[in-house]
Amino acid sequence: MHPGAHNAITDVPGIRVGHATRDEPGWLTGTTVVLPPVGATGGVDVRGGGPGTRETDLLDPRNLVDAVDAVVLSGGSAYGLSAADGVVAALADEGRGWPAGPGAGEIVPIVPAAILFDLGRGGTWRHHPGPEEGRAAYLAASDGPVDEGGIGAGTGARAGGLRGGLGSASLVLPSGATVGALVAVNAVGSPLAPDGRLFAQHLLIPGEVELPTPDPVAVQGHREQQAAEAAALQAGTATTLAVVATDATLDKAGCAKLAGVAHDGFARALSPVHTAFDGDTVFALSTKAEAAPTPVELATLQTAAADCVARAVARALLAAEPVDRTADGGLRMPGYRSDLSR
Fold it and tell me: How would DSSP label each residue in 16-35?
């Protein structure tokens, strides 16, 4: 297996990604939209103690809707779910959605969404993405390389006290199918192994990124600071989100299973994971452009999806720049590469 041309979820043909980023004074949040081609099937697996989601029940294999028009990942906690409204409106303007009536335009776009907690990190508590950011992310969507780090839904993210962010990765399988992942890393758990390296570092493809060497003194100082901050944690104040996509043909049950196995990527990259403080959620999309996998190919696909999720977590941390908003009441979040490495 090897990464696709962009080493991103957009290597799956037909998948587009767009971001809206709000990082001006008082703001540190954003929205990311994943747009599949018409007719894509979706699934979801929600874990952790503090999820915030929209339209996920429609993805249950027992329920009627069999296609997804977009998936929204957003900051802003529960307020940020309103970003999906802008995506729904934009899709409806283009005539895309579930046919709910006989007349022209009598459609309902199907847009599942999930949020992460970043309130107050820019300095102003109520600053959050809304419909305007959702529409902007939708209009910015492309099938090109995916920007990583502090962008879109990963703008205000943190992971184990470090600046979190957005990451993406892909693999082309021996069957010819492609699988890719997009992750917004905002975890209570740490991405750091005991030696200060990233937990998921060993899963990166050789030469994929330039890996820094951890500074033991800086890593120890960070661990002490993180331990001091842990006492102030409250439930529902984190959450890591992911979308995995493939062009292999899967039904809704197959997508749900793919999402479930993809959660293993969180466990390989973050510790602890799926806590009461997190609302970890993984969406899965099948564009159905390639043949349905055999049982052996399905196991390979699911394993590759989990690996892509873990690699995307590592890539997000490696791309994330530090941010300091302490002057206006926000937070300082050190960057892994710039603050803990040499």
Answer: EEEEEEE-STB--EEEEEEE
